[in-house]
Amino acid sequence: MTGPMEGADGPAAGVRVEWSDAVATVTITSANGALDTTTKTTLRTALERLGEDPAARAVILTGAGSTFCVGQDLRSHAAALARDATGAWETLREHYNPIVTALATMPKPVIAAVNGTAAGAGASFAFACDLRLVAQTATFHLAFGSVGLSVDSGMSWTLPRLIGAGRAVDLLLRPRPITAAQALALGLAHEVVEGDALAGRAAEVAAELAAGPTIAYGAMKQALAYSSGHGLLASLDMEVALQTVAGTTQDHADAVQAFLDKRTPRFGNR
After folding, report:
1. Range of the domain at 82
2. How many independent structural domains does the chain possess?
3. How many CA atoms lie within 13 A of 89 on its CB side?
């Protein structure tokens, strides 16, 4: 099943959602991978719907052509600044923050297939995903400072957790292109893949995850996020709560029986 997300006035431009069994691939298709208002709104809606859809057991976020996502469309941004320089930043609360929240808290695995340039909020979106598979020719650009801005779209939270505070501040204060090889060495990428093999590799990893214990995966993500802001005792309590959720599923009961029967378990998101 494939097609653009439907908006109130018909098909919405900028985002395409395609399905392969239990894997949903969300592709940013806007011109040059820039985020105009329509694209931001549609992307938010698509991700929030997939987070709630039990049919989607893994999600891939990618871009079209040679661009993953370059962040805010600067033409529309300049117009918004001219109208109301303060009000222009409400898009962070209305669009960017919900997009990052949907990616980071989705109760199923999310893979960023970084096919090309990931800049600004586009890089932030990739960092909010669980895994990042990166094309050999792709680059990350953390160029907020180059246009006189601070960070947004969750980068203050995700970047230091991925590579450490020292490296994060260096890359933000002295922005320069980060190649795929450098991203792998830093810990920003999990795999570097030949460009023409990226889509297939992302689909392979997503299918593997989609066949796994989705409820348990969601609990793992929640436990990790919780522990990053809480101490040991609180984190232990949260682990008990989340393990009880995962441990009372049919998936867990069937997996235990499969182990006893010496066969491979089959999970059904139940």
Report:
1. 2-210
2. 2
3. 7
